Amino acid sequence: MSLVELANVSVDFNQKGETVQAVHDVSLKVESGDVYGIVGYSGAGKSTLVRTVNLLQRPTAGSVKVNGQQLIKDGEQVISHGALQLARRKIGMIFQGFNLLNETSVLENVAFALKHSKLSEDEIEAKSRKLLSLVELADKADFYPAQLSGGQQQRVAIARALANDPNILISDEATSALDPQTTQQILQLLQKLNRELGLTIILITHEMAAVKAIATKIAVMKNGRLIEHGRLTDVYLHPKQSLTKQFVGGSLAAMKVLNQLHLAKLAPDEAIYQLVYNMSNVTHSIIIDLYREVGVVASMLYGNVELLGDQPVGTLMVLLKGDAAKQKAALAFLAAHRVTATLVPESEVNHA
Question: Fewer CB near the terminus (10 Å): N or C of the chain?
């Protein structure tokens, strides 16, 4: 079931008399239970796009439907202000800056989100304490935000975002200001909420590591456009766009490796490829098999294994040596074994 449906959404801004298109004709569906990672560099339009989900940003064109309710149709708002306020309660949101009230306690910060609810004061306190327990901060209820670490403050923000029992949680660069260890802890908490509460999460980030840790689906944005999307494993194992290849460890990783190895120029019968493969399909040495079956010598320049959720995925940077016929046969062999081979252009090799 689709909880979020964006159809041909565009967002234009007027800056100094000129129209700037931050989002261009994007269509996207987020299903119930997804952890949907939306990645792209700064200025890609990902935050602007996702803010159309709760109409914090009004789209210039297109349609927005959330939880089966039409919010925008053909660029026009079709929901009343009151109904929109109710719809927004089903969409929690956390940010990089935490946005906590510094002069009130942790408990009061969570309770603040319930001040317009029909709960009694005792019920609000009880629910707030339950939410703090959920994010493992039950013992910090009487603390103030300044007394907490960055990760703890983000946990308070998550508890507050869950106060109105949303079924969608938007995380807008929520781990960008945190150190790697704390980032991992927050991502694990989000994954726990997804699994235990059935919470659908939209994860906006420029960090592919965050997406690889918990996302089930991914969308890649560039210059306001959606250039690639799908299940995380499919996009990671078979990236089509050059930017996507960079995000999964393609061209940028190649240049770093080549720079370290001081490779200046390849011989006519040499080429460098990035290989990406599912280790459940390729459990043996693909390098040895390439030589045995095709007669192509493959020198490994870089290798890595990481988990996409619970699935191990391997990445290799290899130099293949052989004439044109053997190179072609090598690529056919790799494709037959479900290994995605991406050529590193010689221009990148020469300028590494």
Answer: N
